[in-house]
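Pair request: fold both.
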Amino acid sequence: MTSKIVETTLSADLVGGGTFAVGYPAGFSKGSFVGSLKHKLATGSGNVFPSPAYFTLTFGATSVTVNWTSVSPTLPAGTKVLLELDMPGKNSAEVKVPISPIPGNMVRSGLFAINLGAPATADADGYCASQSVAQNASAILNGALVSSGVGVSDVARNIVAGWTTNAVLTFTFKDEHGNTVVEKSAGGSATFTGKKACKRLISVSSDTAITGLTVGTGNVFGLPVYVPSVAAVIAELEDGYNIKPPARVFLPWELEQTELLAPTAEDLVCPVDGFIDTSRAAIQGAVTTGGDLTIEVNTVAVTGLSHTVANSATKGTRYEDRPTAPRSSTTAVAKGDRITVTPASAFDTAGSINGALEIEVTGLQGTFVGGSTAKPTATTGDVRGTYAPRSTPDGTISYELLVRLDDADFYGQAQFAG
């Protein structure tokens, strides 16, 4: 990886939850660093604080803001600070280039296939068959997936559990790389769906006496390396077929004359996760009295997205509009959401309109969660990321993700081990 160093001196105490900003190195900007996680902050006295455990970065137009986490130590005013800004991709000096070094504003990025295998059907009591557990005691690992006192999963996958009486359960296990991981359930609950991927379950304990405890496997699978976001996923395969939606989906609609004049909204079902980007319309039948068309998601209007149809609009008249703020909250859609194209009551006498909504797709058919960038605890997400397929694993369906990685050797933050 390539990095750039920015040096500054703190003008005020940097306390937990505090911030400070520094300018970019000469010749570099926001685009040079976005997408990387392995930044570091060092002090003149030799202390080194890695991101994101101790800080996160907000990249602005002309400067980068260091967001010191609430649990980080106070750095007094006058402290000399060295901020190491990591750049995504491999250093060109690390790779042979056949003709000449690549330009400074380019980095190498690799394409990798992550084979998740053909996981077996989830086994809800595969680790612990129904049993009672005393307060502050450990459960007996006695399920069908237990071998020599250890619960062994076919692939790294999340833990599920259920019991009676609200309690906090602690699960200690190994990830697929052999690292110890500790995960806890939330207080005030009697069920648990884990977010971290377990390969070998070592122990389960409860802070309260409980009965009917079962512990087993879920259908959320761990990734072997750090994958930052769904944007890095190029293809999503089931049994070798790419099922990932295209980058853009077009949702057609039609307001016939009876619907336009009534008026009656055209109802659509959103097929993907994403954002409404553009609406386009064309007059199919000449309009006598015009009016407005608005777009709603689950009955909430998309801010700034509408069409104003003039009186006497002729066949073939075309309209195009975009939301006031692209990718804002009112433009967000999820698979299954209700989208409506609603005509105002002004339309009268005659007319019909056709159109289509352009949706920017941000999701997969399955559910992807990028590697957690929060400081690892017993309740944070998986440090490398997880994937839950759209179909139900049964031991016969194979799953694979084709991903673009800037650093295939990065396994995410250190696991929380208690």
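--- second member of the pair ---
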Amino acid sequence: MFPASAPMEVAGGDGEEGGGASGPALGLVQDLTSLNKHVFNQAGVELGEYGSLILQKSLQALATQTDARSLRFWGKISGTNKDYYICEVFEAKNLGEDTRPEGCEARGTGVNEYAYFVANEAQGPWTALPDLEPMDLEASRGIKVCFSGNLERDIATNPFYFRKEKHFLRAQISRIHHATKLVPAGRYKITEREEKSE
């Protein structure tokens, strides 16, 4: 998972960018070209100057399409046939009808706080992953399988998984997201009350 950075405004209107007078800001998008130069390269991750620029433009188009409050490049997962570029979206308004079954956390809360979009190439097209259901999260802990890059693939594994790769991918993204929080030293402080309760 890649760290967040200072967001960049995406302006609406006549295709102009940068929060000018052409229209109201539609969302906040990371500055991937700066991240690629100062963070990704130092971590050994290579998007390339052209690749980061293409991905930046693709995310800006997705921000306009979803009318999201903010979005960021979450990371990349390798597949046997194709890779997944993953985008994390906060408060997207154009996700279609909410058809989750009972027992699932509502959009914008818990494990469904963010919506996730994936693409096989940096320039898209982007596909929304389904909301996470408890059964997918539970199953993802007990099976091991390689991603293929095909969201509609049936997963053949033991124990049997009755859902598609898109459901398994969404569950693994949530598990990675919640298990890899990076907190800078000194950001949070433990109070005396918390120390005594432990």
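Observation on the second member. The longest helix spans residues 49-66.
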